[in-house]
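The instructor's notes for this session suggest beginning with a concrete chain rather than abstract definitions. Hand out the sequence below and ask the class to guess, before any prediction is shown, which regions might be ordered.
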Amino acid sequence: MKKLAIFAICLIVCLGVGTTAADEITYAGSATATFSASGTAVTGPVSYSAGTFSGTTAFGFGSLNTLGSIHVNTNLTFVSSQTLNLVVTFTLPVGISSGNPVSVAVPVLISVNHTRGLVHLFGSCCTSFYFANGSETGSFTIGINSVDIRPGQTQNITGFLYGESNPTVPEPASVALLGTGFLGLGSFVRRRLHV
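After discussion, reveal the predicted structure:
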């Protein structure tokens, strides 16, 4: 029974090497934006406040939780169509091939339902990026989520990120774990043959 337990532990150690988080991406940056009108001006303005974001993907997916916020004044009284020119600047990962800042244009439609206005920010999907630096290469894609905002409210602009990286050199911890697993498996087989 003891030998079976040792074998099971060695097998788990050997198979567990593939589940390291070497392919996850650490990302960080900031977002700013300006409005450009393509229609009639708005009586009650819509304003934007800048934001920052950071995180690490989990199973290849991450959240861009603070790409700034939009505030709609209570006196929104006219129909208009505008574009929110959202400029996202990544500080991590380093080595993005298209450079920084990375611009993503997000259309914002401002509409009125009789006396109640509603701003609908249509999301944008998908913009892909590639990166390479001394320790890893990879790619990721970002998108902006849609959001509805009523007059007098402020709403965060959020997005998503998915992708993966490939280390150019094996991680020392992974190699050590694999070696330990093979040593344990080898000693188990050796004992088995000598008994």
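Then share the key points. The chain has a mean pLDDT of 75. The two ends are 15 Å apart (CA to CA).
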